[in-house]
Amino acid sequence: MAYRYDHILIRYGELSLKGKNRNSFIKQLLANVKLALKAYPGLEFEKQHDRMYIYLHDENPEAVSETLAKVFGISSFSLAVKTEPDMDAIVQACMESLDLSEKKTFKVAARRSDKNFPVISDQINRIVATAILKNSDWKVDVRTPDVKIVVEVHSDAAYIMTDKIPGAGGYPVGVGGKAMVLLSGGIDSPVASYLMMKRGVHIECVHFSAPPYTSQNAQDKVMALAELISPYQGEILVHVVPFTDLQLAIYQNADESYAITLMRRMMMRIATKLAQKRHCQAIATGESIGQVASQTLESMQAINAVTTMPLIRPVVCMDKVEIIDISKKINTYETSILPFEDCCTIFTPKNPVTKPRIEKCERYESRFDWEKMVDWCVDDVKSYWIHPGVSNEEEQDEDLF
To answer: Which residue from 340, 343, 336, 338 is spatially nearest to 242, judged by alpha carbons?
Structure first.
C-alpha cells in the first residue's frame, strides 16, 4: 500500500436534527475533539456544515482513531486519503490505497458534492471499478462487499475512504449543561457518569473518603475509574471530600439502622454546595431502584428532601446485568470490582431501614451541629484534574472555588 492515510473525515450524529442550535453544537464538538486529541500536536482541524476534517500530518492514524471513537457527538468517521478532484488522480489514489494482492469483493460508492465536477457519481463508480477489475482478481459485490470504497468529490479535493468506524453517538459534552456526579468505587456510578456525558452533560465528580477506615487504595481506585471515563469529555475534575468526622458523628447520634440514609443526606448537602460553587445545574448518582436499602423510593424521597437541585439517576430503572454490560463496554468493570471498599460499604449497618421517615431523619440530625460539619467538609475538599492516559493526579490550588 503506497498511500498512508493523511485525513480523518468525521460525520455528525444527532447534530443533524438540532436546527438552529446546529452551529453551536458543531463548535462544541470541535472543542471536545481538540481536547481529546491534545496528545497529538501535529493535528490540524477544519469544521464544515456537514463534515469535520482532521489533517493527520504524520500522526498515527490508528492511535488517533482509538481516542476519537470515544468522543460523543460523532456518528461515524473514516480514515481517508486526500487527492486532487481529477479522475486520473482519484483512480490512482484508489488503486494505491488498496491491497490488491488478496482476492476480495468490493463496491464503489461515489458522492459528488461539487455538481460542477464533469463526471457524475455513477460514472465515477464505473471508472474506478473498471480500473480495479483490470488490475486485480477482485470481484464486484454491491450487496455485501468485503471492501466498500467511498469516493467524495468536493470543489477543492477528493477523498478516498475504505472503512467506516462507528462513533460514540450522543451529543457533544457541554451542550447539555453541567452536573456534579457522586462517584464511588462501585460499578454503577461510572456508568451513570458515562450516560450523563453521552447526553451532552459536562460532569465533575465528587468522592467521599473516610480515612483511616477507607484506604488510599480505595481513593486510587476511584481516580483510576475517573481516568477510564475521562476520554469521553477530555478531562474530569474530581473533588475528594474528607467525610470521616461527619460519618462518625452520625453513628454517635443516630440509630444504626438510619446511618446510611443520614450519610446519603449529608453527601447530598455537600454535593449541592460543591455543585453551586462550580456552577452545575444538577446532581447525578448511580442509584438503581431497590438495589440496596438506601435506593428504595422511600429512601430516595428522604435523601431528595435535603436539596432543591435537580437529581438525575441515569441507571435508576436498569437491572444489575444491564449496568454491568455497559461497564464492560466502557472498560470500567474490572476496576470497579477491585476489593477496596468505600465509606458506604465500610459502614453498612446490619439492618438498614428501607422506609425511612423524613421527620425521624431530622430528629436524629438535630442532635449534632451537622451544618458546621458539612461546611468543614466543603472547605477541606481537595480537587484533582484527571486526564486520559495520565496516572498521576495534579492537585488544584485553593483558588478553584
So the answer is: 343
Q: Reduced to 3 DSSP states, what percent helix, strand and coil does the chain have, rounded to the nearest 5?
A: 40, 20, 40
pTM for this prediction: 0.85
The residue behind cell 454491491 is: 142
CA distance 205 to 207: 7
Residues near 334 by beta carbon (within 8 Å), at least 6 away in sequence? none
Please tell me the distance from the alpha carbon of residue 188 to that of residue 195, in angstroms, as a whole number: 11
DSSP letter string, 217-273: HHHHHHHHHHHHHGGGTS-EEEEEEE-HHHHHHHHHHS-GGGHHHHHHHHHHHHHHH
Q: List pLDDT tens digits, range 362-386.
A: 999 999 999 999 999 999 999 999 9
Q: What is the three-class DSSP state of 331?
A: coil
**Cα(312)–Cα(200) distance, integer angstroms:** 14
Contacts of 292 (CB under 8 A, 6+ apart): 352
Cβ atoms 232, 168 nearer than 8 A:
yes
Q: Which residues contact 341 (CB under 8 A, 6 or more apart)?
A: 185, 214, 218
Please list the residues that pair with 166 across neighbouring strands: 76
Measured CA to CA, the distance from residue 310 to residue 322 in angstroms comes to 25
| pLDDT above 70 for 396 | no
DSSP bridge partners of 181: 205, 284
| Cα dist from 362 to 19, 130, 319, 359, 401, whole Å | 48, 80, 32, 5, 29
